[in-house]
Design goal:
α1 runs antiparallel to α6 and α5 packs antiparallel against α6. The chain is an alpha/beta fold. It contains 7 helices and 9 strands. The mean pLDDT is 92. 34% of the residues lie in helices and 23% in strands. The strands form 2 sheets. It has a 7-stranded mixed β-sheet. A two-stranded parallel sheet has the order 1-3. β6, α3 and β7 form a beta-alpha-beta unit. It has a single domain, classed as 3-Layer(aba) Sandwich (Rossmann fold).
């Protein structure tokens, strides 16, 4: 727990939100190889999640907006993708699903373009502020992901709640306003972790299961 907290404090100092810090910590534990695509990628490559995975996977990037970079593909995830079947070993889908009004197409298309034994890796917010890009439509629970991915009979389904407890979840909601107070912001995070740690002693259920700031999923086809 304390090692994770130190990593979160370090990433907070670098300006990352708590949700993104949790997501990056998960990415650092995953090794990827093969041809891969990251959906919803930024124009600035240093902001993309592919930089935090281990391994030597070769990436291309996709966004609904046009980008002159040759490694970017303009794709609309609400429509059929102009990508051949069984193209990618890894599909990265970070903080994208909440911006889609209908998910039937994206799950069908990902299953089509993903190779056998390929990996779908992604994350979505839960207890998190509304953030339009330009729209923010929905939030998803652990039960939703298990039910959705179980329909396809994937070989492996791992869904991880991101967070620690009610105070840490509350911190995530006000972190935007705490950015004007460096150091104090990190101190407040430590305090929230400590209080949640005390609460957890008296609660049988893991608090992150009740108060997740987001979810991280790893699906093997």
């Amino acid at each position: 727990m304390f090692k994770k907290l130190l990593n979160l404090i370090f990433l907070s100092f670098k300006g990352y939100s708590l949700l993104r810090s949790y997501q990056l910590n998960e990415c650092k534990n995953i090794e990827l190889r093969g041809y891969s695509i990251e959906f919803g990628a930024y124009k600035e490559k240093k902001k993309n999640f592919n930089n935090f995975f281990k391994g030597n996977a070769k990436f291309v990037f996709s966004n609904i907006h046009y980008n002159k970079d040759k490694n970017y593909i303009k794709l609309d995830l609400t429509k059929k993708l102009e990508i051949k079947k069984n193209t990618f070993q890894n599909v990265i889908l970070m903080n994208v699903l909440e911006h889609l009004p209908n998910l039937n197409n994206i799950f069908k298309e990902i299953d089509r373009i993903l190779k056998i034994n390929g990996n779908l890796i992604g994350s979505t917010p839960f207890i998190y502020q509304v953030h339009g890009a330009p729209f923010d439509y929905q939030r998803f629970t652990k039960d939703f992901f298990y039910k959705t991915f179980s329909k396809k009979k994937y070989k492996s389904i791992i869904i991880k709640p991101l967070g620690f407890g009610p105070l840490v979840a509350s911190y995530s909601l006000i972190q935007t306003y705490l950015r004007y107070f460096p150091i104090l912001k990190e101190f407040f995070l430590i305090l929230c972790y400590f209080i949640d740690f005390i609460i957890q002693i008296f609660v049988k259920t893991r608090l992150e299961e009740i108060y997740p700031v987001g979810y991280f999923f790893i699906i093997k086809k």
